[in-house]
Design a protein that fits this description.
This protein has about 375 residues and is mostly helical. It contains 15 helices and no strands. Helix 3 (about 50-80) packs across helix 4 and helix 3 (about 50-80) packs across helix 6 (about 125-165). The radius of gyration is 22 Å and the shape is globular.
Length: about 375
């Protein structure tokens, strides 16, 4: 017997979410009240864009989508499921469009991918495991990108640090070694049975199942999937760098990368679908604070979001329509969500935890679906 959530809890969650959004909007209004350029200045800046750099940005964003599809395909291959690259690329566009277009978009996007994996030959456990591991790899890819940037910056400044404060690097090495030793020791103390009980106690059985399935994945599949996840983030960053160059903004790669990574970390807080509003504010504030002119920064943010979000919506909806016209049964209904989230009696289904789409969606979102009287998601076709 499954545990039902009390309506008061759902209403309280929505109220807290609305309060969070209002708080963010208040902070945004206070921060940007004197930094938003006039519309005429933004239009004039848009007219100065270099077409070659914009084409390069569009190409980088396409590669980013292809890398996400490759990440999914590699994980499916690791579990013995083969799906065509073009089909997974179309699925990546459809998922991204759904995630930012519908209520509970991340949940609907995850359910849509779950059905696509099932139709591609994966059983229920494999489909769920692939989605969980894909989300974890997205987090790992972002961490690799962030760590690489921090390491590169640290190496550039290491010589100055050693000359100025020779003790600090030694202290840092000792601290890192101690943390690594503690993590390894803690891991060895926990047996597999104890870890399984911990996952069950948390009500996250799908995640526990995914972690168990990790042991069957060959190392080469892990490396290739992680490389694709990292490339997914990296090419999205290259899109922003190309857009910044298109408008003649003279900022270092490190400055733009720092602004980008800050925005991607903040967007994981599920305040708005696809981080709409959050990303724009963080990028504009960061670029202006780094020294960019306000009109050029606003134009760069608009162009980047157009390529990485707004243009993906019609493309994704088109691929979704083509899939349906070809006879695909990929309509996300209440019955599908029940199947997607059913993992056993008394446990929390994976559907309640959602799924991630890398730079264009939350890595993880806990959000209940808005359903109609017949158990179907509001806003989606019922045929």
């Amino acid at each position: 017997m499954t545990t039902k959530q009390h309506p008061w809890c759902r209403h309280r969650g929505r109220a807290l979410r609305a309060a969070g959004i209002l708080a963010v909007l208040g902070i945004v209004a206070f921060t940007l009240h004197d930094r938003i350029p006039a519309p005429a200045d933004v239009v004039a800046a848009l007219a100065t864009a270099a077409p070659a750099w914009l084409l390069a940005a569009a190409g980088a964003e396409f590669v980013s989508m292809a890398m996400f599809a490759r990440q999914q395909r590699r994980l499916l291959t690791a579990f013995g499921v083969t799906m065509p690259r073009r089909r997974l690329l179309a699925l990546a566009y459809s998922r991204s469009a759904i995630a930012v277009s519908f209520p509970a978009g991340s949940l609907v996007s995850a359910a849509y991918a779950f059905r696509a994996f099932r139709r591609g030959g994966a059983d229920r456990g494999t489909a769920t495991t692939v989605m969980v591991l894909s989300g974890l790899l997205s987090v790992a890819g972002l961490a690799v990108l962030y760590g690489s940037g921090a390491f590169t910056t640290g190496m550039v400044r290491l010589a100055d640090t050693v000359n100025t404060h020779p003790v600090l690097p030694a202290v840092g090495v000792v601290a890192i070694g101690w943390v690594a030793f503690s993590l390894v020791a803690t891991y060895r103390k926990h047996t597999p049975r104890r870890r399984h009980r911990s996952w069950a106690w948390l009500g996250a059985t799908p995640f526990g199942t995914a972690l168990t399935g990790m042991r069957t994945v060959a190392p080469r599949h892990w490396l290739l999937a992680l490389a694709a996840a990292t490339a997914n983030w990296l090419t999205d960053l290259l899109c922003l760098l190309a857009v910044v160059a298109a408008f003649g903004i003279e900022l270092s790669v490190f400055d733009v990368a720092a602004v980008y990574l800050t925005g991607q970390l903040l967007r994981q807080i599920p305040l708005t679908p696809g981080g709409i509003g959050v990303i724009e504010v963080v990028l504009l504030t960061g670029l202006v604070s780094a020294g960019a002119a306000e009109p050029a920064a606003a134009a760069a943010v608009l162009a980047y979001r157009l390529l990485s979000c707004w243009l993906i919506i019609p493309i994704g909806m088109l691929t979704l329509l083509v899939s349906r016209l070809r006879g695909g049964q990929d309509v996300v209904t209440g019955s599908l969500l029940d199947e997607f989230g059913r993992t056993g009696e008394g446990t929390t289904g994976f559907a309640e935890h959602g799924g991630g789409v890398g730079p264009r969606g939350y890595v993880r979102e806990q959000q209940s679906a808005d359903t109609g009287s017949r158990g179907e998601l509001t806003g989606l076709p019922s045929g």
